[in-house]
Amino acid sequence: MRDPIAALRDRSAPWTRHRGVRFAVHVLRGQAQVDFLPSAVTGALFSVALCAAGWAYGLYGLLGTATGTATAHLLGVDRARIAAGLEGFNACLVAVGSAVFLGPWHLSTALLAVGGSVVVTVVTAAVARVLGSRQLPTLTLPFCLVAGAVTTAAPGLARLWHQGPAPAALPRPAGPPSALSFTDVWHGLFANVAQIFFIPQWYVGALFLAGIFTANRTAGTTACLGSLTGTGTAWALGAPAAQIASGAAGYNAVLVTMALCGVFLPAGRRTAAYAVTGAVAATALTPALTALTAPSGGHTLTWPFVLTTFVFLAAAPAFPRLRKAAEPTPAATPAAPGTPAPNTPSSA
């Protein structure tokens, strides 16, 4: 089979042969790879979406992705991974997460975002070497490790924390389910997509979803399916209406559904059902991990997505009906550096 990254490179326009422009394309693909899509056009739309939440968030997203991509270049990471944006998405999340959780208007936050984006590139290589032998992708595990450490430690560091008292709190007993309005439902369906970048505004999620559909209609459809599953499961379990409307209860379901139906497993009816099952599990796992991290002042991040997807991917080889005879063609990250990336949808 022809190397899909080479094919992607061959489809690039002549102007991408300029080094600076080529680097910019790699950075934009890195942003899009947060949702498994190596498309520079989608990455540009994601930047617009982040700027809609606040121009500082758009700037942090580009800063983190560019730092991670440049670090991978300097360390000599396989060029195919860099070209596909696989070395930028964890750094993007680290930078945007730093801005969201620590406040974007502080020099310490900017420096921490840059430093974290460098470190997460190293962590990505380490995690890939460990998981590669088990045929598992890195997903956003490097981001979770770095951002988890930073956000947990920050309240105890005066030069990093500018938010008042530390947010650590013991979990509270659940009260009666709050009424869920129609507005809460449709806001939540879009906000689930935005919360992948820790942004709660529904209109930002609509822009992200438009970017996903621009790159790949199957990916957009599975993102919608995951959002519906996350919202429905959160409502069925009695999650607070505010959490459903803000997307905090359902964003992990979006990532799990995309990963298990069309990215790491081929898209189809059986894998769609498998993915929905995983999305339900991730949504149920989210409050458990929130309760686990809250006393230390940490955040749930994308841990439910990572843990659920690892379990479902590790189990998949035991279920032959989840695979078809032909090799699947997902837009996914390889399990380890140097592993050829699977086929990807057309991108700029």
What does the model show?
By secondary structure, the protein is an all-alpha fold. α3 packs across α4 and α13 packs antiparallel against α14. The longest helix is centred in the middle third of the chain and has 26 residues.
- The N- to C-terminal Cα distance equals 22 Å
Structural class: mainly alpha
> What does the overall shape look like?
globular
Low-pLDDT parts are 1-11, 324-348
The mean pLDDT is 87
Tally of alpha and pi helices: 15
Brief digest:
The chain is mainly alpha-helical. It has helices spanning 4-10, 19-32, 40-53, 55-74, 79-83, 89-102, 107-132, 141-153, 182-194, 202-215, 217-237, 241-246, 251-263, 269-293, 303-315. It contains 15 helices and no strands.
Strand and helix layout:
Blueprint: H1 4-10, H2 19-32, H3 40-53, H4 55-74, H5 79-83, H6 89-102, H7 107-132, H8 141-153, H9 182-194, H10 202-215, H11 217-237, H12 241-246, H13 251-263, H14 269-293, H15 303-315
List keywords for this structure.
348 residues; mainly alpha; 15 helices
